[in-house]
Design goal:
Blueprint: H1 5-27, H2 33-50, H3 56-76, H4 81-101, H5 110-129, E1 134-135, E2 146-148, H6 153-170, H7 175-192, H8 195-216, H9 222-245, H10 247-259, H11 267-274, H12 278-289, H13 294-299, H14 313-340, H15 344-359, H16 367-370, H17 372-378
Helix pairs in contact: 1-2, 1-5, 2-4, 3-4, 4-17, 5-6, 6-7, 6-8, 6-15, 7-8, 10-11
Length: 386
């Protein structure tokens, strides 16, 4: 379905506001400006979905389920009402995005993603250059990393990765723009020290570059092919050297020393160094769940429970919202993906967000990031020029 001009303007403005909302979440947390604006957008989504007869039943079910979860967490788990509303809102926001954007076709949205990207990168780099941002770790931790004026470096990483994917596809025939955007991403990677951002930046860059070379390979002379292969080899070597000089590598070494991981290719290395001990947290969560009632297995232990989050979204969704919450979310994803008939580029974007949610979390239950599932559904051809 195509949007009206007014709805298109609202959507564009909302996307352009995202970096500023994330800055407000970091610098002005007590005012909850980001939650108020995202809450108003959720109400707007509800009104727009209600106007679609084929979506009304699912909308009513969603609202009833969310209301039921608030009641369950408040009266059975004894969570504070506002904490329950906040937790359920973050989950419901994702589902509202799926309900609305899965029937929307708006490839023109991609042309505004470049502005959003430069907003995020500009705010991040300026906060570093002018010394008004924040470090991720304490000095006593031994690790290095800069999060700028954003509350969560994991959320920022996921957002920049998906925006970078769309920008490279859109500017695939403009080498200069691709180079500028890639250099900016490398700068953020080196400062942030996050594995996900560094790894996906390289994967997307070489993936898009490789697809471009494959399209034109048969038309080039041997000399040009040799020169390009040499250039790619140089870039790969430069990336490897950068990695060993980056905060990413430094933090991995600190993590390895702290946990006394001796073997590089071992499950211990994967868990403690690559996944920051997340699988240990998973087993602790499951040990806790074994002592809980059947209701907690069905509907979760709530977001207010002091048990440490795993930071792998699918597991956190199960622990906090139970088997029902996880299955309901998966059902909506697969239902709308089948209905939308994803093409290869959409599927790749979906896989990028899905893998990030499994490796570092902060995707499915973070409204700042889950919004970009809407982009995956609405933008059927990310290669459209802008």
């Amino acid at each position: 379905m195509k949007t009206s001009k007014r709805d298109e303007i609202i959507l564009i403005l909302y996307f352009l506001l995202q970096p500023l909302l994330d800055v407000c979440a970091c610098l002005l947390p007590t005012y909850s400006i980001h939650l108020v604006v995202r809450g108003l957008f959720a109400l707007w989504l509800i009104m727009k979905i209600w106007q679609l007869p084929e979506r009304r039943l699912l909308l009513v079910l969603l609202l009833l389920i969310c209301g039921g979860y608030v009641g369950y967490q408040t009266f059975f788990l004894k969570d504070a009402l506002m904490e329950s509303v906040s937790a359920v809102f973050k989950w419901g926001y994702l589902l509202l995005v799926l309900l609305y954007f899965s029937q929307l076709k708006m490839d023109t949205l991609t042309r505004w993603l470049k502005v959003v990207f430069f907003e995020y990168v500009g705010l991040y780099l300026c906060s570093y250059l002018f010394h008004f941002g924040f470090n991720i770790y304490l000095k006593t931790d031994g690790k290095e990393g800069f999060r700028g004026v954003f509350q969560s470096i994991n959320e920022l990483s996921a957002i920049l990765v998906i925006l970078y994917y769309y920008l490279l596809l859109s500017w695939r025939k403009k080498p200069l723009f691709m180079a500028v955007v890639s250099l900016l991403m490398i700068a953020v990677c080196l400062l942030s020290g996050t594995k996900v951002l560094f790894g996906f930046t390289l994967l997307i860059f070489f993936g898009v570059l490789g697809s471009l070379l494959r399209e034109k390979w048969s038309h080039w002379t041997k000399q040009k092919k040799g020169g390009l292969l040499l250039a790619m080899a140089f870039v790969m070597v430069a990336c490897i050297l950068l990695f060993f000089q980056s905060n990413v590598y430094h933090n991995m070494v600190v993590q390895q020393d702290f946990f006394q991981v001796k073997h590089l290719f071992s499950l211990d290395f994967i868990n403690r160094v690559l996944f920051n001990n997340r699988f240990t947290f998973f087993f602790r969560n499951m040990t806790y769940m074994k002592r809980q009632s059947i209701l907690c297995w069905l509907f979760g232990i709530g977001a207010s429970n002091p048990l440490k989050w795993i930071e792998i979204d699918f597991f956190d969704l199960f622990i906090r919202f139970g088997a029902f919450g996880l299955l309901w979310t998966c059902f909506l994803f697969f239902f709308f993906m089948k209905q939308s008939r994803f093409n290869k580029l959409q599927m790749l974007a979906f896989l990028i967000l899905g893998i990030i949610s499994f490796t570092s979390g902060h995707v499915l239950l973070s409204p700042a990031v889950s919004l970009y599932f809407g982009v995956v559904f609405a933008c059927t051809d990310p290669r459209s020029p802008f």
